[in-house]
């Protein structure tokens, strides 16, 4: 069984499977699920355009987990995170962490340092991204004057996240909490770019998730990974067209190319990825990990 499929883990009950992660609750001595901890397992599944693809990417779950753990250390002075322990069952070693169970905020917290993707489409339409007015004359790949907070809704599996005006975030979580997660999200992206720039990488944008432990805001899920962020080689950055990347944009580009034969508007699921696209995608994830951390990836 590959890590693209949920496992049955002795001592744990599976409580949720998302696009790429599976959540398990530890069982207490009586066999009941504990309400304070979760085992967060990253699979090798890959999602694109709101579909989970049939082709897993080998070692992807381990890359995301190990890179998130490294970033949590780099961000520890900005915001606490949900990690309790990396001592996990052998079957998921390297791609799972034991975390605090949090009350998750109902907002996808997105920050952008460069304009591309869905943000570019919004900007072209009316000069705004998630209600934030941007300067005129920007193009695909333009650096923004400063990171901007462009949140979105948390859509159910299979549906699209939608841009979320800041006023809606305030209504969802309160004005004080909205300002707090806005500032944290842009600070995480700014810190990420400070560190990544020294390693020849630009982080165009990122998505983070926060939860509450009592009154404390805690960084959860993953952070600054090739799944949650766009990583660009700094030496190849050239505004005016899509940028080369170390992230799953490579897969998105293949899916929308003539080579895939897939029509995104058809409503049909995307095709399986060819072996060479799978191998190149794995290579890009591993390279991002190694360039950022300075460590060799060991699966």
What can be said about this structure in brief?
This protein has helices at 60-74, 117-126, 166-173, 175-197, 249-255, 275-293, and strands at 12-17, 21-26, 37-42, 47-48, 51-52, 83-85, 96-100, 103-104, 109-114, 128-129, 132-133, 143-149, 201-213, 216-220, 229-233.
What brief labels describe this structure?
299 residues, alpha+beta, Phosphorylase Kinase, domain 1, D-amino Acid Aminotransferase, Chain A, domain 1, six-stranded antiparallel sheet, five-stranded antiparallel sheet, 6 helices, 27% helix, globular
Rg, alpha carbons: 19 Å
In terms of quaternary structure, the protein is single chain
CATH class value of the largest domain: Alpha Beta
CATH-assigned homologous superfamily of the largest domain: ATP-grasp fold, B domain
Number of domains: 2
Strand-and-helix sequence, N→C?
EEEEEHEEEEHEEEHHEEEHH
Structural class: alpha+beta
Helix proportion range: 25-40%
Straight-line distance between termini: 16 Å
Uncertain regions: pLDDT < 50 for 5+ in a row?
none
Mean pLDDT across all residues, rounded? 94
Report the CATH architecture of the largest domain.
Answer: 2-Layer Sandwich
The backbone outline, from C-alpha atoms, is globular
The percentage of residues in β strands lies in 15-25%
CATH topology of the largest domain: D-amino Acid Aminotransferase, Chain A, domain 1
How many extended strands?
15
